[in-house]
Design a protein that fits this description.
alpha/beta; 7-stranded mixed β-sheet; 5-stranded mixed β-sheet; 16 helices; 16 strands
Length: 475
């Protein structure tokens, strides 16, 4: 945690000269905003933090006082200080803390879309389907057979023959990853991730107490030789990859690397977890390469996916595809967590998958328009920012004109825009030059969001007096 503080405090930005205690308090708020500092964490003692940061204890004392006054710190004499929740805040859709009255906030921190129109009809049909299942206990750790069959058909249609016994239904993609970590990775074992990567995946690895190693994805995507040599050298127990419209960069992994990955992983004793959350959302890409699992000959590849991105995040249905014996072990481990997924939700998912072609086609059409609208707005309002136009998925990885991502997040919040700064997507708190921007909101909202971001960026270049205001987000 001290390392993250040192990074945040060291990046002061062009805001003019401010007292050191103000800089420190603002850095702590920034760590709370972007999720690198959780609620209820015990902060270092004043003397310890002063020594670690190379500043006076008086500065730390003043900063802690500011944080207590704004509601971000709770202290008890002789016991310590903990990050706290300001009055009137709640958990937001992004998992961060947010004011309960922020209805006008433009949220660019969450890459998700509203439910499709077909949801209501699918739910009505699912209720009618419920009768036979209501006669039993409802606990099926593997998931309903009818849903596993539908998921298996989707894989088979993509050229990856799949049996229902190779599929387990979970409570979303995040639970799929969490269950795999519980089963496969013991505390202290090494895990390999991309950087940048999905922040909630990083949280899952941290919770599992894995030793996380990372390799960087460049502006053109994966360096094939570097990835393979890293997999061989790391000899990690598990590696987590997002090859299809990577989150957050939007890159699509080349077929040649997909073909070589399973063999390299097998040689290193590494299981591959392939996140295909965005696989259905190709926009203007050519035909998709085969799934990594299509090249698996040694049962090293576990593919996870779900309904959240192409359908609706409120339908907490995900799945794991893998070798049948491992799936059976995973189901047994799952019983100690939540027994089974909700039956009615699974029946809704079945009905939505029956409408898959129409729903996904509409999603792609909508996302294509919104992606191009966001790109045009960025080029017009912030021409110094750079990005590679993603060929699919829901997000754009934007390089800023300076390492001010966290500072920009704080400034944009005051103008009614929530953004996900680059450090949230790395294991080491770096990537201050980057920002993830989803294009899942309506076109006019995206244009307005970019206009406000341009104003927030300009504010960072203007010296100003510091004035505390009630923060919009706390984690």
């Amino acid at each position: 945690m001290l390392n993250a503080w040192q990074v945040a405090v060291g990046v002061r930005g062009p805001n003019g000269r401010r007292p050191e205690y103000v800089v420190l308090a603002n850095a702590v708020r920034g760590l709370l905003i972007d999720g690198r500092l959780a609620l209820g964490v015990r902060l270092p003692a004043e003397r310890e933090l002063a020594a670690a940061l190379g500043i006076s204890r008086t500065t730390v004392t003043a900063a802690y006082r500011e944080l207590r006054e704004s509601g971000h710190l709770s202290s008890r004499r002789g016991a310590g200080s903990w990050t706290a929740l300001p009055t009137g805040h709640r958990v937001g859709t992004s998992g961060l803390w947010t004011p309960s009255d922020d209805t006008d906030l433009i949220d660019l921190g969450c890459a998700a879309m509203p439910a499709p129109p077909e949801l209501t009809e699918a739910a009505t049909e699912a209720v009618a389907d419920l009768g036979p299942y209501a006669c039993g206990a409802g606990y099926q750790p593997m998931g309903l057979l009818v849903l596993r069959e539908a998921i298996a058909r989707c894989y088979s249609e993509r050229g990856l023959p799949t049996d229902p016994d190779q599929v387990m239904v979970t409570g979303g993609v995040q639970q799929a990853l969490d269950l795999l970590l519980r089963l496969l990775v013991a505390p202290g074992q090494r895990a390999l991730v991309e950087t940048p990567t999905y922040p909630n995946a990083l949280s899952a690895f941290t919770a599992s107490r894995a030793r996380v190693s990372a390799y960087a994805i460049g502006p053109d995507g994966w360096d094939e030789d570097l990835v393979l040599s890293t997999v061989r050298a790391a000899q990690a127990r598990l590696a987590y990859l997002i090859p299809d419209f990577h989150n957050p960069t939007g890159h699509l992994m080349q077929a040649s690397l997909r073909e070589r990955l399973p063999a390299a992983a097998h040689a290193a004793g590494t299981d591959l977890v392939i996140d295909e959350s965005f696989v259905d959302l190709a926009l203007d890409a050519p035909e998709l390469p085969p799934s990594v699992a299509a090249f698996d000959r040694t049962a090293r590849v576990l593919t996870i996916g779900g309904m959240s991105k192409p359908y609706w995040g409120g339908l907490r249905i995900g799945w794991v595809r893998g070798a049948a014996p491992l799936i059976a072990r995973l189901a047994a481990a799952r019983v100690g967590v939540d027994m089974a997924s909700p039956v009615l939700d699974q029946l809704v998912a079945v009905r939505l998958l029956e409408r898959r072609e129409a729903i996904v086609a509409a999603r792609r059409k909508q996302l294509l328009v919104q992606r191009d609208t966001l790109a045009a707005a960025l080029r017009a309002e912030l021409p110094e920012w750079r990005f590679v136009l993603p060929r699919g998925g829901m997000v754009m990885w934007v390089e800023l004109d300076a390492p001010v991502s966290s500072a920009l997040a704080r400034s944009a919040e005051e103008l009614g825009v929530r953004i996900a700064p680059g450090p949230r997507f790395g294991a080491d708190g770096t990537m201050e030059r980057f920002l993830r921007m989803p294009y899942t909101l309506p076109e006019d909202t995206l244009v307005e969001a970019v206009r406000r971001l341009a104003s927030a960026r300009a504010d960072l270049d203007r010296p100003r007096r510091h004035a505390w205001s009630a923060p919009a987000v706390v984690a």
